[in-house]
Amino acid sequence: MISPTYVIYPSFIFTNRDSIRNNYKLIAKAYFDINYKILTKIVKAKRLICSSKYIRNVAKSTIDQECDVVYPPILEDELDLNSDYEKENLVVGVGKFVEPKHWDEFIEIAKKVKEKRSDVEFKIIGGLNEARSSMPYFRKLQELSKGKVELLTDVSEKEKWDILKRAKVVLHCMRNDNVRMIT
Q1: Which of 24, 44, 110, 156 could hold 122 in an S-S bridge, CB 3.0 to 4.6 Å?
Q2: What value, to the nearest 5°, has the Cα angle with vertex 139 and ends 134 and 143?
Q3: Mean pLDDT of the 3-11 span
Q4: Is 30 exposed, middle or buried (0-12, 13-18, 19+ CB in 10 A)?
Q5: Residues in contact with 108: Cβ distance below 8 Å, sequence separation at least 6, in sequence order
Q6: Residue 124: which of 116, 134, 115 has the closest Cα?
Q7: Domain segments of the chain as ranges
Q8: CA atoms of 169 and 117, how far apart (whole Å)
């Protein structure tokens, strides 16, 4: 029996190794090098399993490896599939309040849309508990978003799904991110 390796996200690390490595300093470079060695061993596994078609395409284009897609499970009770939700003029973003997510761009898009369509609501559902070092960025977002975008921090899974089910649009501004959504 072949023991498969599950690839959550084979970062663009393989095609941009040196430029990414140069962004790190001292001990972070050492951690980067160790992780790089581990990742290169993982991708030489006889069988890879990944979490989405997007990741399968990234693995194929960056490390020339094929992956079988196995989607992560979502518990039916989280979705409350028996409930009817009417879609609202709501645009939602989901993710930690960290700079690579480009929430400032999300807010700028919201401002432009609201100039023409004041009935459209914008919400960002983001985590702060695990991103406390990003408080200066979060404060900047609070200032930018005043009256335009509601910033929701560390909401429950139920509340997150309730909001997502009502949204007409989910907007994700981070580049090369591995998102999984139900459509």
Answers
A1: 110
A2: 145
A3: 55
A4: exposed
A5: 144
A6: 134
A7: 5-69, 76-170
A8: 14
Question: Are 21 and 145 spatial neighbours (Cβ–Cβ below 8 Å)?
Answer: no
CA atoms within 13 A on the CB side of 161: 14
Question: How many C-alpha atoms does 175 have within 13 Å on its Cβ side?
Answer: 2
Q: Which residue has the tokens 């993982």?
A: 42
Strand 67-69: give its sheet, edge to edge. Answer: 5-7, 48-50, 67-69
Distance of CA 136 to the CA centre of its chain: 20
User: Position of tokens 């498969």?
Assistant: 4
Predicted local confidence at residue 27, as pLDDT = 74
pTM of the model: 0.63
The one-letter code for the residue type at 109 is I
Rounded to whole angstroms, how far apart are CA atoms 18 and 22? 6
Contact call for residues 145 and 151 (beta carbons, < 8 A): yes
Amino acid making up residue 23: N
Chain position carrying tokens 């309040």: 97
Of 21, 52, 94, 40, residue with least CA distance to 178: 52
Residues in contact with 79: Cβ distance below 8 Å, sequence separation at least 6, in sequence order: 161, 165, 182
Determine the topology of domain 76-170 in CATH.
Rossmann fold (3.40.50)
Question: In which band, very low, low, confident or very high, does the pLDDT at 108 lie, cut at 50, 70 and 90?
Answer: very high
Of residues 169, 43, 155, 158, the one with CA closest to residue 106: 169
